[in-house]
Amino acid sequence: MTLTGSSDCEVITRVDEASAESVTVVALLNCLVREVSGPGGNVVPDGADRVVITLEKTGQALSARLHRPMMNVSRGTLQPRFTGEVEHAGIRLGWRELLALVDAELTAITGETAGHLLRQIEASHQLIADALQHRKNQQFSPDIYLDLEQSLLAGHRYHPAPKARSGRLDEVRQYAPELGARFQLHHLAVRSDLVREIHLPDARPDGDEAPAGYRLLPLHPWQYAILLRGDELPAALADGRAIDLGPSGPWMRPTSSVRTVAADDSEFVKLSLSVLITNCLRINPWHEVQAAVTLAGLLEPLRRELATRFPGTVMLRETSGLTADLGPGTTDQLGVIRREGLAGRLRPDVLAVPSAALAEPLPHPVVRQLLDGLAGDRARLLEWWQSYLRLLLPPVLYAYAGHGVVFEAHLQNVVVGLDGDGLPVQLVLRDLEGVKLVRELRGDDLAGMPEPVRAHVGTPRDRGWDRVGYCLLANHVGGLISALADRAPATEPALWAAVHDQLAEVEPFAELEAVLAGEPVPVKTNLLTRWRSAADRDSGYVPLYLPLGPVS
Q1: What values do phi and psi take at 306, rounded to 5?
Q2: 302: number of Cβ within 10 Å
Q3: Which of 23, 163, 169, 329 suits 80 as a labelling partner, its CA being 20 to 30 A distant?
Q4: Average pLDDT by stretches of 10, the chain with 552 residues
């Protein structure tokens, strides 16, 4: 099999494989099983192709059809793979009816209902429907990487509202990567004394195309529209603290994160966006901007060590950041982070693929070509997976255990480089803003940071492992195995055995030894987090047993 790195402008016609309804039902079932019914032992097989999910507090029972049989393991299973068909009392449920039963169960558990969740899931469902319709006639561009970034139609499979975005519906659609959004950044000239800036010593300063005494500040055009409807920006424009320069520069495309954009593979720009996406308002507070660039400098020795110790490892640096104070709260809403691009950091013959694109249920044609080819050749699939694991697991676990550095290596934060035959040969870790330092190991480094930065970056070891165990093992490894096994179900035990073997080769440390001994990993409770309208940093965790032990 050879990957050409081009989709040849192929039009996807297999939209009937997924629908917004089934994608939404599956996400809600996944959350229900992982966070509520699964930990209580209330998910049991019903033949080879169904499971019964009991809602313990309300006494209701759901019968859900499986895409493929569950893997039997000696202790625990990662997750049933649902088709989206679920019944209650013999009646098939849509996502609204399913949510009503979940609402009753969680209300009985928590004592509170959550009407806002209905609106968020409805918004997510609508955007998925729009994206599926867009995909029917989509012509892919020559820029395969950004096409892949914009190809994630289903999103986070363990979040109840993976595609929900707050704000006006017309703007949600206009700036949705799933709908092929393209736009120029909106620029302000801000009085120089109101601008804060931080950059690495070797980073080029931002352009100075602003009038004398002013600095250029880029905004996401959606953020500009939001702020223009408020009080602070219009006041700053009226009194001359800021000058509206309008849209300019290259045409940018939003990546899967919505607020990070790129024109090509030379640089990413992470912009503030006062929009709720999954669990967070996606703004860049100044202390987080500082943290990202500070960590890029602090972790430079580790970046070089990882590249040497684990060939193929690439860590993208956040090179600079800036914001402006145009009134209360505006420094958070105007923060900008510039990140290195992929150009010059990946081999010329390598195709960059966001790891999340590999787990997408309705993938881009290039990814579908890869996955279908692997599914038809068991030996090659295992070779591919072993190569992937060798790139992914050792550097992330070494950074945690050896250096007290917590990379959030979930599917969206990693890019894999595939050679011409589709084999993984490079792995990119990105988004230093989310990186944490273990307080017990990096106390001196943390002590030298300003207090808000220190509070954001520092984490106790147990909380650091929550992030590593969840992002790396449950979200990333578990998510990819599920996608691979959907196409080749008989390989699932061998795929997990390969994970066990690779983990066993990593230099041991306490948390890893516990996982290999059969202890669970922590997984984030996105349903319960949304139920409480909590921020992502306040998410809880539940235990999840990975099928790393003997197969029964």
Answers
A1: -60, -40
A2: 18
A3: 163
A4: 46 54 96 93 91 96 93 63 95 96 95 90 96 85 89 94 95 97 98 97 73 96 98 98 97 97 95 94 96 97 98 97 96 97 94 97 92 96 98 98 97 97 97 94 96 97 96 96 94 95 97 94 93 84 84 44
Instruction: Using alpha carbons only, give the angle 171, 123, 17 rounded to the nearest 5 degrees.
Output: 110
Which DSSP category does 461 fall into? H
Q: Is 443 left (phi over 0), alpha (psi -120 to 50) or beta?
A: alpha
Q: What pLDDT, on a 0 to 100 scale, did the predictor assign at position 139? A: 77
- Model-level pTM? 0.94
Cα angle, residue 252 at apex, residues 419 and 204 outer, rounded to 5°: 85
Task: Give 60's DSSP letter.
Answer: E
343 vs 108: CA distance, rounded Å: 53
Number of neighbouring beta carbons within 10 Å of residue 46: 14
As a whole number of angstroms, the longest Cα–Cα distance in the chain is: 74
29 phi, psi to nearest 5 deg: -60, -45
Residues 175 and 179: their CA atoms lie apart, in Å, by 8
Sheet of 405-406: strand order equals: 405-406, 436-438, 458-459
Which one, of 167, 178, 265, 266, lies nearest residue 221 by Cα? 167
Report CA 156 to chain centroid distance, whole Å. 7
Sequence length of the chain is 552
Q: Where are the domains of the chain?
A: 15-141, 182-340
The single-letter DSSP state of residue 72 is P
Q: What residues pair up with 23 in beta bridges, in sequence order?
A: none
Of 381, 392, 412, nearest in space to 255 by CA:
412
**CA–CA dist 11, 8 (Å, integer):** 9
Q: CA 525 to CA 33: how far, in whole Å?
A: 11
Rounded distance, CA 38 to CA 110, Å? 17
Q: Are 434 and 542 in contact (CB under 8 A)?
A: no
Work out the angle between the directed axes of helices 300-309 and 378-403 (0-180°, nearest 10): 140
The 3-state DSSP class for residue 370 equals: helix
Whether 3 contacts 422, CB under 8 Å:
yes
Do 175 and 254 meet the contact criterion of CB atoms below 8 Å apart? yes
**Residue 48 one-letter amino acid:** A
C-alpha closest to that of 128 among 147, 160, 152, 98: 152
